Amino acid sequence: MTALVLLAAAVIACTTPKVHDGDTLRCGADRIRLFGVDAPEVRRGQTPAEPLAYEARDLLVSLTRGRVGCRVVDHDRYGRHVARCWSDASPDINAALIRSGLATEYRRYSKGAYAAAEAEAKRARRGAW
Predict the structure, then answer these.
(1) What is the CATH number of the domain that holds 67?
(2) I want to staple 10 with a disulfide (CB 3.0 to 4.6 A). Which of 1, 14, 71, 72 is the partner?
(3) Helix (H, G, I), strand (E, B) or coil at 6
């Protein structure tokens, strides 16, 4: 007989997390990278910010006001949780960022999970499109 073990994915919850950039946030001690989202990088040291980096960060700030939940789907090489997140402001924060055109789908990992959101942003010429 073969036993099937289902492991519940971890859920991280917090209120108004600290936002680092358009695809990274912190809930308490937990660092979270948004699954399938690639946002422009903010300024780091002498490296200037990429176009629309601060707009993407500001949108993530507005999407994460209030209660936030993140379902962990993986961990990255930096030890961050990779997660799909939702909040009082949005049922799918990851898709909302991509739909805005201020972030793109990170297809290498998402395998097309947000293709429709990115296509919508392109059709509407939002953000970088």
Answers:
(1) 2.40.50.90
(2) 72
(3) coil
